[in-house]
Amino acid sequence: MDKKNIVMAWWGTGWHVFPIRSLIQTALSLPEYNNNIENIYRFWGKWSLEEQVAREFWGTVKFRTIYNWKWRRESWIWTILRNLFDGFRLIIGIIQNFFLLQIYHIDSVFCKWWYVALPVVIAAKILSKKIVIHESDTHPWLVNRIASKWSDDIFMWFDGVFKQWKVVWQILSDDLIDPSFDYDKIPDQKKTKPTIFITGWSQGAKTLYQTLANILDKNSNITEWFDIIISLGKLNEDLKIIFNDKNIKIFDFLDQASIGKIYQKSDLCLTRGGTTSLAEQKLFWVKSIIVPLPQTHDQTDNARYFVEKYQDIMLDQRSTSFQSQLEECLIQHLHRHKHSFHQNPLKQIQETKKLILNAILY
Fold first, then answer.
1. pLDDT tens digits, residue range 204-244?
2. Are 173 and 19 in contact (CB under 8 A)?
3. Longest dimension (CA), the chain
4. What is the pTM of this model?
5. Rounded CA gap, 21 and 351, in Å?
6. What is the side-by-side order of every strand in the sheet holding 313-314?
7. How far is CA 261 from the centre of its chain?
8. Mode of pairing for the β-strands spanning 153-156 and 130-135
9. What is the DSSP string of 262-313?
């Protein structure tokens, strides 16, 4: 069988970039896939996080800058003009990708998320290339709604997002799993305090962190009741000062292995509504207090699903009583300790990626 050339096209924050990194790692580490891959191409913009990740696999993974577009839904005159301008960029991107897919002899295109993938998918459709998509949200984004009409295989995490679907787990990193940890062992219930992990990351999280700091200023007992771990993300390092002298652990950036070890001992997580983070928390059986980004409908829909299926908690940061609600929520979970882990989490993660790679390559 001839070796395949693959394009992976999606854009996002770290929590959307790292899953594709994990998919590439699996493709390159297992002989049944690596032996059938000639090259993997990563399409996006210069000096991006995507390019940094691609450089980890330099040689097999080749990065290419492409034109892209973004559809803005605001009604301002400036927004309308930007949409018109981006319409031309979309046309240029389709033409550019039409030639790139032929020059690099591309066999399959994998589309995960957001606008950068659309010109790639349209060009792939024109050239009758295989198209595989994965939708991780309860509400599919515009590009995946378009791509789903032409896709050979559609994978999703939530039931019923598309009519023709294959339900799999979210795409997660193997690095989350500690090979030395016994996941069959019931977590220790004798520890005196539950552990809460705050993971607002960089997604407009300043309000979330500031509200927590206000609560800790008002009620110093919180730090006596909980072991608190905070990951600020690279864009919130300036917020360290608001947590000074509060007896908590603060990190800027955490790699996947470090995050996995924190999830192992965490009982609660205060988080945004991104599906990658929520999937990681459920893999380690962590109860989530979800505060969706107010300006996005997808995170709210995701949160509602998790409230219904996993009895998680959703809070609205736009509420005038948000701070008091969050404080009360923490107090209600003073004795929260998880009782189990996901059965064989590494197998769960790997099976999802194998299903997707089988669709891309075979």
1. 678 888 899 899 999 989 989 999 999 887 777 778 888 88
2. yes
3. 66
4. 0.84
5. 16
6. 249-251, 227-231, 195-199, 268-271, 287-290, 313-314
7. 18
8. parallel
9. HHHH-SEEEE---HHHHHHHHHTT-EEEE---TT-HHHHHHHHHHHHHH--E
